[in-house]
TrEMBL record:
Coiled coil: none annotated. Pfam families: Amidase. PANTHER family: GLUTAMYL-TRNA(GLN) AMIDOTRANSFERASE SUBUNIT A, MITOCHONDRIAL, TRANSAMIDASE. This is Amidase. PROSITE patterns: AMIDASES (PS00571). Residues 30-460 form the Amidase domain.
């Protein structure tokens, strides 16, 4: 097998690889060998895969893999969340380096039950705060397989880079402000954020960032995401709230196109500012594609209070970061050798907030969700925007060394100006997806973003599958994956 199968890993999706295993054309051990060889060959350039646990993976194969839809497929989990007793985690932080867990999280149990062969973790920024993955604990930035001078995104930046580089066909991620969709856009992949509470958070967390954060996957195909969502969806024991029930499931939904939809197209930011011209044209081109498929596409922007939402998001995440640091350090301030600059800034920012501010911010997030729901209630089924306001940034542009946490997030050159779309749908809890539909003149991926009304995951993923069939992206691969 050898080099040929390494190449196949760069081209096949997880469903195809599982089919090869089921037919006996390749064994799980051979696929793992190929993935480990790809790590050795490609990871030094991108710094995406960490904490490799080869013996754990070998043991899972030897003991017998569950008979599920991805039996035998190599897999990586994000180095943040997805707590698993056999997989220590740094959580993107020197402060939490080599954390171990006494039991598996619900999401990991469900992923494992599909038959995947998990063999390591992928890099993330400290605490998941950021649109780049450049945490000090990993000794250097994670780079984009399409161009090593550029970021693979964040916070699931290692996951996006590992899939785009052909190390694995699919990887776990999570999304609290775009952290699946931003790497998907940056790395030429598909990334889907489900409706709030569609996937389990427990038992290590009650909810992520006041319900704004949720797990997800970086994939080459819509079908891989659909099947994984079906395998993992539903509340875990004691969940504080649940998502609206699915009618048929994601995999069934993509078996046929959705009804003809009303699509609101916005080729600016949600507050009307211009975005990079190549990105804006990608949005318009997608609008024309949707029209050609029979959908009704009309310009519209939701009348929502985006500045209020971003202030609330910033305060909630700041408090969450401080809570995490406090779990290790108590009430003393974190030192520079323990915690990144941005995280120290988030801790300091949290100390300036009135004790009632957290609940006020949660209320503002809920108010924003009601504003967005009102927009969808008046007509559109889907809103079409860019995923990012420009192509992937250069490595170093958003390095988390500054202690000005608020400016890092919301300043004129901050992360929100770069990524002004994704967090809105974390706040509203709506399903949203990034599709790899264009590339810049310099060869960098450009993602296009679709979001649907709360609970309408099946409609959205069916539309994504229809677009994938009309404008397939599977043949486009990063040079190192080819």
């Amino acid at each position: 097998m050898g080099d040929a199968m390494i190449g196949d890993l760069g081209a096949a999706d997880a469903t195809e690889l599982a089919g090869l295993v089921a037919k006996g054309e390749v064994s799980p051990s051979e696929l793992l060998d190929a993935a480990l060889a790809a790590v050795e060959a490609r990871n030094p350039a991108i710094n995406a895969v960490v904490l490799v646990q080869e013996e754990v993976a070998r043991r899972s194969i030897a003991e017998g893999l569950p008979v599920g839809p991805f039996r035998g497929v190599p897999f990586l989990i994000k180095d943040l969340g997805a707590e698993a007793k056999d997989f220590p985690s740094h959580n993107g932080s020197r402060l939490f380096a080599n954390t171990t867990y006494g039991q598996d999280s619900a999401i990991f149990e469900r992923m494992k039950a599909t038959g995947l062969v998990t063999f390591g973790r992928t890099t993330s920024p400290e605490g998941g705060v950021g649109t780049v993955t450049e945490a000090a604990v990993y000794g250097g930035p994670t780079r984009n397989p399409w161009n090593l001078d550029h970021t693979s995104g964040g916070s699931s930046g290692g996951a996006g880079a590992a899939v785009a580089a052909g190390i694995v066909a699919m990887a776990h991620g999570s999304d609290g402000g775009g952290s699946v969709r931003i790497p998907a856009s940056s790395c030429g992949l598909f990334g889907f954020k489900p409706t709030r509470a569609r996937l389990p958070d427990g038992p290590y967390a009650g909810e992520g960032w006041a319900g704004m954060a949720i797990d997800g996957f970086l994939t080459r195909s819509v079908r891989d995401t659909a099947v994984m969502l079906d395998a993992c969806e539903g509340p875990d024991l004691g969940a504080p709230y649940v998502a609206p029930p699915l009618e048929r499931g994601h995999a069934a939904a993509i078996s046929r196109p959705p009804r003809r939809l009303r699509v609101a197209i916005c080729d600016t930011t949600l507050t009307g500012e211009p975005i990079h011209p190549e990105v804006a044209e990608a949005v318009r081109a997608t609008g024309r594609l949707l029209e050609s498929l029979g959908h009704v596409v009309e310009p519209a922007r939701p009348a929502v209070d985006v500045p209020m939402m971003m202030r609330a998001w910033t305060d909630i995440v700041g408090v969450g970061t401080a809570l995490s640091i406090r779990s290790k350090l108590g009430d003393r301030p974190p030192r520079a050798d323990e915690v990144e600059g941005v995280s120290r800034g988030a801790w300091a920012h949290s100390q300036t907030l009135h004790p009632t501010r957290y609940l006020q911010a949660v209320g503002e997030i809920h108010a924003f969700g009601r504003q967005m729901a009102g927009f969808f209630d008046k007509g559109p089924d889907v809103i079409l925007t860019a995923t990012l306001a420009e192509p992937p940034a250069r490595v170093g542009r958003f390095t988390p060394t500054t202690e000005d946490y608020v400016a890092y997030r919301t300043g004129p050159q901050g992360i929100f100006a770069y990524s002004p779309f994704c967090a809105a749908f974390n706040a509203s809890g709506q399903p949203a997806a990034s599709l790899p539909l264009d590339w810049s003149s310099s060869g960098l991926p450009i993602g296009v973003h679709l979001a649907a009304a709360f609970g309408q995951d099946e409609t959205l993923i069916a539309l994504c599958a229809e677009v994938e069939r009309a404008a397939p992206w599977a043949g486009k691969r990063a040079p190192m994956a080819a």
